[in-house]
Amino acid sequence: MNFALDTRYPAAPALSAALPAPLERLRLPAELSGTQGTNRAPARGAQIAASDDLAAIAAWLARYADSPATLQAYRREVERLVLWATLQRGKPLSSLTHEDLLAYEHFLSDPQPAARWVLAGNKKLARGHPDWRPFAGPLSPSSIRQAMVILNACFAWFTEAGYLGGNPLSLARRRRGPTQARITRYLSHALWDAVKDAIEAMPTDTDRERLHAARCRWLCTVLYLGGLRAAEVAGTTMGAFFCRRDAQGVERWWLEVTGKGNKPRLVPATDELIAELARYRRAHGLPPTPLTGEERPLVLPVIGREKALSRGALHLVIKEVFGMAAGRLRARGPEWEAQADVLASASAHWLRHTAGSHMSDRQVDLRHVRDNFGHASIATTSIYLHTEDDARHQATQERHRIGWTK
C-alpha cells in the first residue's frame, strides 16, 4: 500500500503570497495568532500568561536565555514550524494536528516552493535582510530527526504549562536510533598532519600575518588538545587556566570550561598546551602565564580591543585553515582531490571529533576521554577525586599530543 503526504495545502488568503519573516519581526492576523487555536487548553489551567502562540513561544525560549547555542537551535526550529503552519498550512501553531506534523516532517526534506523558503546562494544573510529565508536547503534525515525532537519538547512543555490541550507529536512512532553509531566527521591522522603543515606554512611577513598565523595555530591547538567546542572556546577566558599540585607534589595545569547545560568541567592542560599558550601570549607581547582570574579572552582578535570572538567568527577561522590545507592538497595532484574535498567540508566541531578519535586510537582510557569531553555529568563528589583526576591528566599528557614540528 502506498502512503503519500500532500504538503500543498493553501494558506490563508491574506498570506498566500507572503514571504517568511524572522520570529521577532512576525506579525500574525488574529485568525492565525492562536488565540482561538483548536488545541488550546482551558485558560483556567494555564501556568503561563501567554494569550497567543508567539507569546507562548517567547515564554518557552526564555528558559534558554543563558545558553545561546541552545536558544539559537530551538528558535530556528520553532520559527520554521510557525512560518510553515501559517504561510503554507493556513493554521496557527495551536491548531496543528498529528497529521499536520507528519506533513511538516515531509516538508523538511524538500522545502517547496524554494523561492519562498530557501536562501538563494551560499552567503548567510542577516535576519533583517529582505532576502532572508529560514532554510539553506533540504534537511538531512538526522537534521529532520533533531528538529522533530526539539519540537516534541516544545509541544510537551506547552501541554505541561496548560497552554495546549495535548501534544500532537506524542503520537509519533518512536524510531530506534542506530546502536553505537560511529563518528564519521573527523580527520585521519594524515589529514590532521596536512592541516598542521598548512598552518606552519602561513606567511608571517607583516604583524597582521604573524598574529593571524599565531591565532590559527593556537585555536587549532586548544580545540584539539582540549577537545573543546567552539562555543566553549568563545566563552572561556585565559584566567580559566590554573595550576595545582598532585599528591606527589607535581604541578599540573588545568582549564576550567563551562559546557552544555552550564555544566563546568576540568580539562587537562598538558605541557604542550601550556607551552602553546605561552607561545601565543608572547606573540601578543603578554607574559607567558595568565594571571588568576584574567578576563582576557582565550582567543584574541588580530586587531582592535581584546574582545572575545564569537562562535561564528571562530568557525570562520577554522574554515579558512581547512580551505587553505585543502588547496595545498589539490596542488599535489588529482589523486588528492577526494581528501581535499573532505577537508574543505570540515568544520570546527570536526576537531573535537578528531581529538576524541585520536585519543581512542592511542589507547587513552575511554573514561578519561568521557570526562575530558564532558559527555557525562560530573557528580558532586568528583571534586574530591583528585587521584583519579591526576591519573587522567597523566594519561592525557603522555598519549595525546599535537607535535608541532617547529
Automatic annotation (TrEMBL):
Entry's Pfam families? Phage_integrase
Record's keyword annotation contains Cytoplasm: yes
Every Tyr recombinase domain range: 182-399
| Record-level Gene Ontology MF annotations | DNA binding
What cellular component GO annotations does this protein have? cytoplasm
> Has the keyword Transcription regulation been applied to this entry?
no
Compartments where located: Cytoplasm
Q: Which GO terms describe its biological process?
A: cell division; chromosome segregation; DNA integration; DNA recombination
**UniProt cross-references to PROSITE patterns, sorted A to Z:** CB (PS51900), TYR_RECOMBINASE (PS51898)
Q: Which keywords does UniProt give here?
A: Cell cycle, Cell division, Chromosome partition, Cytoplasm, DNA integration, DNA recombination, DNA-binding
Q: Which InterPro entries match?
A: CB, DNA_brk_join_enz, Integrase-like_cat_sf, Integrase_catalytic, Integrase_recombinase_N, Tyrosine_recombinase_XerCD
What taxonomic classification does the UniProt entry list for its organism?
Bacteria, Pseudomonadati, Pseudomonadota, Betaproteobacteria, Burkholderiales
Q: Which residues form the signal peptide?
A: none
Residues of the Core-binding (CB) domain: 51-159
Its name, as the record gives it, is Tyrosine recombinase XerD
